[in-house]
C-alpha cells in the first residue's frame, strides 16, 4: 500500500512496464486498484502493458518500490521502470533482472 498521505509529501511520477499481463480489462484494473494502485493509470499499447503512477512518498525510491510491491501483490510482474532519475531506476532495474 502507498504510504499515508500528508500535506507536505511530494508526488513522484513514473511508469512501470509489466511482463505479459494478459488482457487489459476491468478485472485487471480492479485487481490493481484493490492492491493499492489507486494512484496508477493502466494502459496498453502495441502489446506493452504499463501503469503510470503519480505516487506520494517521502522519496522517489520509496514511491517506486511501494508501487512494485503493490503490483506484485496484484499478481503482475514488473519488467522495468521508465527513468527520470536514472540512478534510482537503474538500481531497481538491475535488481529486477537479477530475480
Indicate the percent of residues in helices: 25-40%
The CATH homologous superfamily is called YebC, transcriptional regulation domain
Number of separate structural domains: 1
Tell me the strand percentage band. 25-35%
Spatial extent as radius of gyration? 13 Å
Could you report the average pLDDT, rounded to the nearest whole number?
A: 87
Structural commentary:
There is one protein chain. The protein is built from three helices and four strands. By secondary structure, it is of the alpha+beta class. It has a single domain, classed as 2-Layer Sandwich (Alpha-Beta Plaits). The longest helix is centred in the C-terminal third of the chain and has 14 residues. The mean pLDDT is 87.
What's a concise summary of this model?
With 99 residues, the protein is of the alpha+beta class. The protein has helices spanning 26-34, 60-73, 86-97; strands at residues 11-18, 40-45, 48-56, 78-81. A hairpin with a 2-residue loop joins strand 2 (40-45) and strand 3 (48-56).
Furnish the topology, listing elements before pairings.
Elements (H helix, E strand, L loop, with lengths): L10 E8 L7 H9 L5 E6 L2 E9 L3 H14 L4 E4 L4 H12 L2
Antiparallel strand pairs: 1-3, 1-4, 2-3
Amino acid at each position: 500500500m502507498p504510504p499515508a498521505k500528508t500535506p507536505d509529501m511530494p508526488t513522484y511520477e513514473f511508469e512501470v512496464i509489466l511482463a505479459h499481463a494478459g488482457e487489459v480489462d476491468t478485472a485487471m484494473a480492479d485487481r490493481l486498484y484493490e492492491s493499492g494502485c489507486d494512484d496508477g493509470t493502466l494502459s496498453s499499447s502495441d502489446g506493452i502493458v504499463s501503469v503510470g503512477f503519480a505516487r506520494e512518498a517521502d522519496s522517489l525510491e520509496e514511491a517506486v518500490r511501494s508501487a512494485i510491491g503493490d503490483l506484485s501483490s496484484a499478481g503482475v510482474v514488473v519488467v522495468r521502470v521508465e527513468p527520470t532519475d536514472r540512478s534510482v531506476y537503474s538500481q531497481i532495474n538491475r535488481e529486477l533482472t537479477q530475480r
